Amino acid sequence: MLLSEAIRSGSISSTGVFTAECTNEHGDVVTSSIDLNDFLGNENGAFKYDFEDKSGFYRNYSTSCESIRLSGTRLHAQLQNLFGVPRNAVIQLDTILAVYEGRVIKRTIPWTKPKIKRELANVKTFCKGTIWWKVKENSVLSTICLDDDDDPVENDIDLNNVLGNYGGYLGYGKNAFQRTQLEIAGTIQNNTPIIQAQLPVGHTRGGMVREESNLDFLHLDDLLCVEDGVIRAILPEGSIRSPLSSCERCSDLNNCCNLPVLEMDLPALLLNSCPTCELLALSFKMCVPQGALPIPDKQSSPGAICSLRYEIAPSHPRPWILEFVYFNQLLDGTLQERHINLMVYTEHSTPYIGNSLHVTGNSRSHDCISLIKSWMSRCNTQHQNCSPQANIVPKRLVYIGLAPSDDIRILITQGKPLAYACLSHCWGKTESIKTTQATLLDYQQTIPWDRLPKVFRDAIEHCRLLGIEYIWIDSLCIIQDDREDWRHEALQMASIYGGCCLCLAATSAKDHYGNCSIEGTKLIKVNGVDGAGSSCSVFVRPARLKHIYDAPGIDGIDDFPLLRRAWVYQERMLSPKVLHFGPEEVSFECVESSSCECGAIEKLLQLSVSDKDRKNLIYQGRTSRIGYNDRVFWMLVVSIFTQLDISFGGDRLPAIAGVAKDFQEHQLRAGSPVGSYVAGLWSSNLVNEMLWDSTDNLPRPSTYIAPTWSWACVPGGVVYYVQRSRRWIAQHFNILEAKTTSISGNPMDEITGGYLRVSGMLREMHWSTRQVGPANRRETYWWPTGEQYSGLPASTKPSSSWGKWRSDYNVDSPGPHQIISSETLYFLLVAGPEGLEGFMGLVLRSLPDPTFGPLPVFQRVGTWAKQSKFEIGDAKLTDLVII
C-alpha cells in the first residue's frame, strides 16, 4: 500500500528515524518506525536511494544533514554537498517506503505512477480494474476483471514473464520463479494488492553461495493494468533471453540469481556456433584477467560468474548490462572480490536492445580527432561565452608546427597575436625537461624530441592533428630558475589560460611520464540474429566509464590525479575550452556545455545544472562567472580550492591569483566592484569572508604566508557557513583599515605582511580540553572570565555559558604557535546571521607588538559560533589590530 494512502500521522527525528501511524487492512492503527539511514544517502546535496542496495554507499544521510522536516509524506532537508555547502533537498517517501499490515517497510523497486497510456479511457490500474485475484502454486496470477461494460472477465497471467528474482529481491524481467523454488502469496490491504514472495538469495552479487532467503513485497499497481477486462503487464510480457540468438548453453543468461554460465571452457564457447556464446567468451577474455580464482564454495565454477541485466521498455530500449564477478588473491592470501560491468548495445536501436555511442579507444584515430573537431566547431559557432577572453599573448610559446618533421623550439612572441593551446599537467616527483637561464638560448633554436617526456609528446601530436601550431607549457615557457620571471608569469595565468584556443589536460597522468592520450580502450563486435530474427551487430564495452565529474572519494577519483592539484584549478576554470584525456575516453568541456565519447557526461550534469550555464556547477570545479552574487561566489571558490593539494604553502595565493584577477575584472564590468584584494579576501565583503573555519587540524607553518585572518595562512581546507539566502550582519563590529604588502607591490603576489584594524566587542576567555570517548577524541571548551572553574572531568556537561571553539590549526603542536590551556584568550564578536538568533566571532591571542602604538595587537587562532544571543557581560568595545 502506498504510504500516502495509509498514513495518519508521521514524524522524523533529528537522527533520521521515520515514525508513522498507519492503518492496516482491518482499519486498526499501527505505529512503526524505520531508520532511513540504512538505505537513504546524500549524493552531493541530494537524496539518493539504492534500491538494489549493491553499493552500500547511499546510506547515513542524516550525518551530513543540517535540518530536517516532514511535510505530509515529503521529506525536506538541507544536505551538505561535496564542499560543505548546504543545499535544499526533498524526496517523496512514497518512492522509497510502502505500508504492509500497517507497518512501514522499505521498497525494493522504486514506485512511480504506472506507465499506462492514459489517453485510453478503458485502461485502468490493477486495483481499480480487478474484483478478485489469486496467485496459484505455479506462479500464475488468476484474476476476475471488469471490462468496459462492467462484465466480469476471467483471465490469467504468468508472473514468470513479467517478474524476476534478483538476489532475493523482486524485480522486473523474465526470470523463471519455479527454478528458484518460489514461495509466493497475495494479500489485499484496503483494496490494495500486494505480492509477497519468499525468494532464495542464491548467489549474491559477489558470487558467494548463500542458502537463506529473503521476504519481499510488490504492489501490483506497479506491475499490471487492466484494459477492457484483460489483464496485461505495464511492461510488456516476455522478453528475449539474449540480444542475439542463443543456444541451450546460454539460454538462461538472464537468470542472474544462480547462473554459473561460464562453466564451460573458453575454447568451447568460441567454437560454438551461437553468437551469444561468442559474445560471452570475448567479453570474458576482455575483462577478466588470467588467473582469476574460482568462486569460493563453488569448485566447479570457472574464474567468474556472469549475469545479464536489462529493462524491458520497447518504446525506449536501453543497452543491456553484462556483469562478471571474479576473485583475485592478494599478497597476504586473502581474496578480493571484483566486479566488472560491460554494456551490450547496438549502433541503431532495436525493439530488444538499445543503442549507445562508440568509444574509439584511440585518441589519435581519425574518428576521435573528427569528434574533437566537431565539439570545438560547435563551441566556436554556437556559444557566445566560449571565445578566448584575454588579449595578451604569452611572452613565450613553443612552436611545434603541423608536421612530425617540424622543429620544436621556444618562440619569443613580442606581442604578436597567435592561436595557441595550453597544456595542463601534473609535474609529479620526477625530474623532467625545463627551461633555465642556461638552456633558454639553446631551446630557442631547437628542443630535442627525445628530451621531451611522454605527456609533452602526446600533447604536441594532438595539437598537430587538430591544426594548432603553438602550445604553452609552463616548464618550458617560464624560466624556472629566474624568480622574477616566474613571479611575473604566475600573475599572468588569467590571460595565458583565458586566451588559449584549447587547453589539453593530461587528466589521468600523475606525472610527466603518464599519458596525454587514449590508447587501447577495448571494444568487442559480434554479428548475429536478434530476437526478431533480423541480422544484428552487437557491441560490448565497459559500462561505466570514469568521468571528470565523478564525486571525490567515489569510484573514479583516483583516475584523475590532475584534478586534485590546486594549481590546476585555475587552469581549468580560466580556459574557455578544455580537452580531458581520461583513462578510457576523451571529454570536452567549455563554458556552456560538456561532452564525452560515451555520452554519459550529459546525464551527470543534469543532476545539478541546466545546459545554459555549465559554469554554475560547483560540483565540477568550473565555477560560474555569472549566476552567483559576489558574496557567495568567492567563498565557494576558496572552499573548493583549499581542499586541493599543493606542494608549497607559499604558493596558495599565487595559485589562485588568476581566478581572483578574472573575477575582479568581471565584477567591475558588471557594475558590481568587489573592492581591494587583501590576502585572498575582498574588502567589499570582508566581514563575511573572514568568518572561515579550518577543516584540518594541521600545524601552522613556521614561515610567513599571510596574515592570520586570511584563509591562506593555514594548510588544508576551509569552509564557510554563509549561505546564498542569508548573510552575516556585523554586530558592534567595524573594519577601520585593511592593508597588505606584497613582494612586488601587486596585491595578488606573495604577501610579506598585513593587518586589520577593527573595532568590536572584546571579551577575555579561558579554555581547557577534555578527552571524550574510547578514541580519546579531544573537545576544547572555554568559558568567560569570572566563572568558577575547578577542573572539567570527562563526565561533566559544560554549563550553557560555555561553548566549543574551533581552532584554526593544531594548537598543541610544539613551536611558536603552540598554546597551553593556562593562557588567556579573547573572543571578538563579529557578526550574526541575518534574520536568525546567533553569533560568530574570532578567537584571538594577544601578542606583544609595539608597532601600532597603544592599540592592542592579536593573532587569530580560531572561531566560535553559537545559536543564541550574545551575552555582552564584561565585553568591552575595543579598537584593536589583528596581524
How would you describe this protein?
With about 900 residues, the protein is an alpha+beta fold. It folds into five domains: about 5-105, HIV-inactivating Protein, Cyanovirin-n, CATH 2.30.60; about 125-235, Roll (HIV-inactivating Protein, Cyanovirin-n), CATH 2.30.60; about 250-345, no CATH class; about 370-520 and about 555-615, no CATH class; about 630-883, no CATH class. Helix content is about 15%, strand content about 35%. It has 15 helices and 48 strands. The strands form 13 sheets. An eight-stranded mixed sheet has the order 26-25-28-27-29-32-33-34, with helices on both faces. A hairpin with a 5-residue loop joins strand 30 (about 525-530) and strand 31. It starts with a helix and ends with a strand. About 15% of the residues have low confidence. This is HET-domain-containing protein. It comes from Hyaloscypha variabilis (strain UAMH 11265 / GT02V1 / F) (Meliniomyces variabilis).
Overview in brief:
By secondary structure, this protein is an alpha+beta fold.
